[in-house]
Design a protein that fits this description.
three-stranded mixed beta sheet; 27% helix
Amino acid sequence: MNDLMRKYLQGQATEQERMTLLAHLRADEQIGNWLRAEMEFSDSKMPQPVQERILRNIMGSRRPSAGRNARSYFLMAACISLLAVLCGLLGMLLWQNNARNNMLCADVVVSTQLGEHSRIVLPDGTLVTLNASTTVRYATAMPDGKRRVQVDGEAFFDVAKDAEHPFVVSAGDVDITCLGTSFDVRNYADETTTAVVLAEGKVRVSTAAADLTMEPDSRAVYNRASHTLSKHSVPSNDYTCWLNGEIRYNNQTLEQIAAELARNYNIELVITDDELKQERFTGYLGRSSLRNILDVLCLASNLSYHVDGDTKVYVYPHK
């Protein structure tokens, strides 16, 4: 096991050795007992049958004792207990501060490609961090006295304070207005919602039909289909840990995760079974390589995968 773990950490394990290692992790009784104990203290709103199925997938044939459920932090437990060192050593997203700046009619356009992150400083001193596949547009002048930025994708804003000039971020049908604060905006065209997560200060989120004020550790979500705007309390770090190259899933479907992996790792992830697309995952994976993420997802559910070359991954039910 030590030799297998060492080879896996060094990226030298063959496919057969990797599968052997994962089989040991699934089968180890001590690991199983520890996982069940950790899951006992986690919160979950998942239905009981789903919880039991998830635990069976992680633990193989062993079933939880009476009164014990698999909880929503099953991925956290699996990753931290089994693959934490792997996730830390086998890689993280590369931060590439080579965004492309183009002057177009007095506007500045900054874009990141698949697998890229970038940081820029606006003329007013505001720091903007762009996630993968994101475009930010801003004007070099303020004709109406407002600092305006447009976002397509995801970006985190650390806004320079200026009481006389409001800072406005436009994300599709949503406007976010503040004087000086820190918040995350997620507005990808292939998703059904636009979301704002506030880390510090206060912002106003506005649409054509609604308007609300946000406090720190809250998340506003605009549904583009129903044109509804809602707000709820969240740990802001759950949604901004990507700034540190870390990965956390918050009750996301496998289909959503596949789209995110495609952006972050510049690959195509094909889910061969429609039912698998709706499998949901919650948990923290640290600074994980693509291989680590796929391995943990397979440990946590009834999944297998096959890598085809450098750009395509197939995910299918485990047999």
